[in-house]
Amino acid sequence: MFRKIYRALVLANAASAANKTLAIMSDRILDDIGQTRGSFTKGLVDSVRKELDKKDNEVAEKKLAKKLHNSFGARPINAIINPNLVGAV
Predict the structure, then answer these.
(1) What b/e string do you get for 68-84 counting C-beta neighbours within 10 Å, with b at 16 or more?
(2) How many domains does the chain have?
(3) What pLDDT digit, counting tens, does each position of 19-41 carry?
(4) For the chain, what is the total number of helices (H) and then of strands (E)?
(5) Whether the Cβ atoms of residue 76 and residue 69 lie closer than 8 Å to each other
(6) Which domain holds residue 48?
């Protein structure tokens, strides 16, 4: 429950900050960075949402690994994946 409230507050603050930034930006500046007034706020809020989702997934994976460790006595494996080699095989 607190996580949902925190998440809603963070997303609302991100939208508010984006709108305040838009208020001082001209259409020419937005054209220079390849944004429109509608896409700027949406893009910023979406990027914050993705970061929150990523963090939530990491926390869930750590909880699952700890639960498996406690249940079966196996140590969690921390694999290091080289992104350059993904799909090479």
Answers:
(1) eeeeeeeeeeeeeeeee
(2) 1
(3) 999 999 999 998 999 998 889 99
(4) 3, 0
(5) yes
(6) 2-72
